[in-house]
Amino acid sequence: MVQIVPSILSADFARLGEDIAKVEQGGAQMLHIDIMDGHFVPNLTFGPPVVESIRKISNLIFDVHLMIEDPDTYAPMFIAAGANQVSVHQEACRHLDRTLHMIQQHGAKAGVVINPATPVNTLDDVLDFVDFVLVMSVNPGFGGQAFIPNSLNKIRQLAALREQRRLNFSIEIDGGVSTKNAADIVRAGCDWLVAGSFVFHSANPAATVKELQQTASEALLARV
Ligand code: DX5
Ligand code: ZN
User: Fold this and answer.
1) 2 C-alpha vs ligand 1 centroid, how far in Å?
2) Is 34 a residue of the active site?
3) Nearest 10 degrees: CA dihedral of 125, 128, 131, 136?
4) Closest-lying ligand 1 atom to the alpha carbon of residue 43
5) For the segment 192-224, what is each residue's pLDDT rounded down to a tens digit?
6) Mean of the pLDDT values across residues 173-182?
């Protein structure tokens, strides 16, 4: 099944618990949590205490996206705070193989993220063991940006590699996702669609998650 993964970056932080409850009502099973350190990206968000707090009010799968310069120090802290899966940027990791294995050893799924200007072939040597690959379809740092169309080619490349090499990693996309492009993204081979502003800036986030899910599920039927 294709998953819609609401990103709380665009939630109302004064009502974070209520906003999370809305997307749960809409049928979301995963929640995307963007961690920014003001160095790797020009923006700041939250630390482990926020994850720990929302862990107490939600059973969703917490998908923590680290846009930080020192993932080795902080990934274990986010896992201890309740992250089920953690993704790290290829561009931020000097020892990517070690970092991804370390995340798995701490009991979380490990994902690797590539920025729009980073080619898929930089991941050739980690695809064998990584749990998921996240393709950035905007330059990371902010919600509400326009989808970069070349991201679809990267999804297609990853889906083809997965088939050729008989691998099991999931493919996730992040940035500028809406009902306008969700079908194309799923048809390209994507499994998890992160959506921030399209969900949380809509009048009815629960209904918007359902609508995206419906669009994605129909496209999945057309794919197989
Ligand atoms: C951007 C973040 C995204 C962001 C997506 O750097 O990684 O997860 O929340 O927001 P939208 O869906 O508004 O592009
Ligand atoms: Zn993200």
Assistant:
1) 18
2) yes
3) 40
4) 6
5) 999 999 999 999 999 999 999 999 999 999 876
6) 98
> Nearest ligand, CA of residue 86?
2
The enclosing H or E element of 164 equals: helix 151-164
**Shortest-distance ligand to the CA of residue 177:** 1
CATH number corresponding to 3-223: 3.20.20.70
Residue 71 and residue 88 in contact, taking contact as beta carbons nearer than 8 Å: yes
List of E strands, the chain: 3-6, 30-36, 61-67, 85-89, 109-114, 132-136, 170-174, 192-195
| Active-site position among 19, 63, 131, 174 | 174
Residue 27 Rama label (left phi>0; alpha psi -120 to 50; beta): left
List the residue whose alpha carbon is closest to atom 4 of ligand 1: 143
pTM score: 0.98
Report the amino acid identity of residue 105: Q
Stated length of the chain: 224
Residue pointed to by tokens 């048809």: 187
Phi/psi for 62 (5° steps) reads -85, 115
Q: How far is CA 191 from CA 21, 56, 128, in A?
A: 23, 27, 18
In the chain, what are the domain boundaries?
Answer: 3-223
pLDDT tens string 83-129: 999 999 999 999 999 999 999 999 999 999 999 999 999 999 999 99
| Pocket residue to mutate for ligand 1, from 4, 10, 202, most atoms within 8 A of Cβ | 10
Span 9-59, pLDDT tens digits: 999 999 999 999 999 999 999 999 999 999 999 999 999 999 999 999 999
Residue with tokens 């629960």: 206
